[in-house]
Design a protein that fits this description.
It is a single chain. By secondary structure, the protein is mainly β. The protein has four helices and 32 strands. The longest helix is centred in the first third of the chain and has 9 residues. The structure holds fe (ii) ion (FE2). The site of fe (ii) ion has 6 residues, from loops.
Length: about 500
């Protein structure tokens, strides 16, 4: 049977699946790409290769599609490829969708019941130890060739990484060279076991710590300070019963408290201290800092309740749009106090967004700046050219100065919406925080094509805009890797 997306109302306009793979040599550029950039921006997201089995399935279940913008000598070359997961290969062979809901195998086609790794590898990228990986938190990293984007397969760090799951937000501390990472549901679906790992720059697992969460929850992101790891636990929950009933993996439970686990970076399982507060979703983090007076302070993008409409409330309550609004907030723990509470402050409420970034060289260090794509409803939107998508645009990148409490913005255009931004250090940078550029893929709803902007991270002024001749798939996250971090060949 031929592929038919006509019954899927979401597969329309800018959001219709492309389903192709492309190479564009020497892309069209307006402005001037700075010549002090040498490396590649890798992004991953997903699109349906075949229509989903269930209309209410999550976009998190779309087939992973990796793209590379290779920048060198002021030029840009583009390439994108599907991640050849066992699932993608099986579906391609059968020419149809064979897998059911996101992280829920109950409805899988009998022909693929033997495929236990159901990942779509569509959430984030990682460059570590000279290797490139596509990540999704339900399985191991999938190694990709950094030049051809050919899929090599799952990677278990020489057999020393024991969790069957690996987060999509591992934290690389450039000062120590260690990658701090974890897997949750680490002893099987709906288990509350968390395995943490410390991996050196050569990919050797140096340390493992195992402990249990207060309840089974999505543990999507953490924050590192110089001395601590902060582990948010919140009401996005699952259970063995839920999975046995064939329900969508995640449901939202408004009754559950939020917990933050605080683990010293050199600590053991017995050292985890849990702080408790009201219902929240901690979507992503910026970073965290230790203060001499015992305060541990984290900035993160947080919402008051479920941020994802495709993960239903466990009691059947309707999705609460205003409570799903995600904003930058500061969480302060007093490690000298015996109190298990914490303080929460709203920051930059005028700039709602969820995709937090910083200058990655400062992960786990004292820092000043956050960067985030956000939605400014006061900016113009050209409905004649851009259609009815005004409410769906992320039209600015913010440079958030957390020390001076100031916001400096870049506006991308009146028919445009930004994906997550990513910091790119200047080649000759002396390491000063924020010395470099911000890059981001942009959807232009007017011209129905995708762009890639390069913005000076200090002045927040645009340097260049790469224009692709087509739309690219939805992005979840992206990373920058310099030609020193990965063995990048000269583009030909
Ligand atoms: Fe994420």
């Amino acid at each position: 049977m031929a592929v038919d997306f006509s019954s899927d109302p979401t597969a329309r306009g800018f959001f219709a699946p492309n389903r192709f793979e492309a190479d564009v040599f020497d892309c069209e550029v307006s402005g001037k790409i700075p010549t002090d950039i040498d490396g590649a921006f890798y992004r991953v997201g997903g699109e349906w290769m075949y229509p989903p089995m269930f209309k209410d399935d999550s976009v998190f279940n779309t087939d992973g599609h990796v793209a590379m913008f290779r920048i060198k000598d002021g030029n840009c070359d583009f390439k994108n490829r599907f991640v050849r997961t066992p699932r993608y290969q099986a579906e391609r062979k059968a020419r149809k969708q064979l897998f059911g809901y996101y992280r829920q195998p109950a409805a899988d086609d009998p022909s693929v019941r033997h495929i236990k790794d159901r990942t779509v590898a569509n959430t984030n990228m990682l460059a570590h130890g000279g290797k490139l990986f596509a990540l999704k938190e339900d399985t191991l990293p999938y190694e990709m060739d950094p030049n051809t984007l050919e899929t090599k397969g799952p990677y278990d760090f020489k057999g020393k990484y024991k969790s069957p799951t690996f987060t999509a937000h591992p934290k690389m501390d450039e000062r120590t060279g260690e990658l701090i990472t974890w897997g949750y549901e680490a002893t099987g679906p709906a288990s509350n076991d968390i395995f943490f790992y410390w991996i050196d720059a050569r990919g050797n697992v140096k340390r493992e710590v195992r402990f249990k969460a207060p309840y089974v929850s999505m543990i999507h992101d953490i924050a590192l300070s110089p001395k601590h790891i902060i582990i948010p636990i919140y009401g996005m929950v699952t259970s063995k019963e839920r999975l046995a009933e064939g329900k969508i993996h995640w449901g939202w439970d408004t009754r559950l408290p939020t917990y933050y686990g605080v683990l010293p970076r050199d600590g053991e399982a017995k050292d985890v201290r849990w702080f408790k507060g009201p219902e929240r979703a901690i979507v992503h983090t910026f970073n965290a800092v230790d203060h001499p007076d015992g305060r541990l302070v984290m900035e993160a993008a947080i919402s008051d309740s479920n941020p994802f409409p495709f993960f239903p409330d466990v009691e059947g309550k309707p999705f609460d749009g205003p409570k799903a609004r995600t904003t930058a907030r500061r969480i302060t723990f007093d490690l000298n106090s015996k109190d298990d509470g914490f303080k929460e402050e709203l920051l930059f409420q005028e700039a709602p967004g969820a995709l937090c970034r910083i200058d990655d060289r400062y992960i786990g260090q004292d820092y000043r700046y956050g960067f985030m794509s956000y939605s400014d409803a006061g900016r113009p939107f050209d409905e004649k050219r851009g259609g009815n998508l005004r409410g769906r645009v992320s039209n600015c990148i913010g440079q958030f100065d957390f020390k001076a409490n100031k916001l400096k913005s870049y506006f991308v255009g009146d028919t445009h919406s930004l994906n997550e931004c990513c910091f790119v250090p200047r080649n000759a940078s002396n390491g000063e925080e924020g010395d470099g550029y911000l890059v981001a893929v942009v959807s232009d709803y007017g011209d129905m094509r995708s762009e890639f902007v390069i913005v000076d991270a200090k002045s927040m002024e645009e340097a260049a805009r790469v224009k692709l001749p087509f739309r690219v798939s939805m992005q979840v996250h992206g990373i920058w890797a310099s030609s020193k971090q990965l063995p990048l060949v000269e583009p030909v």
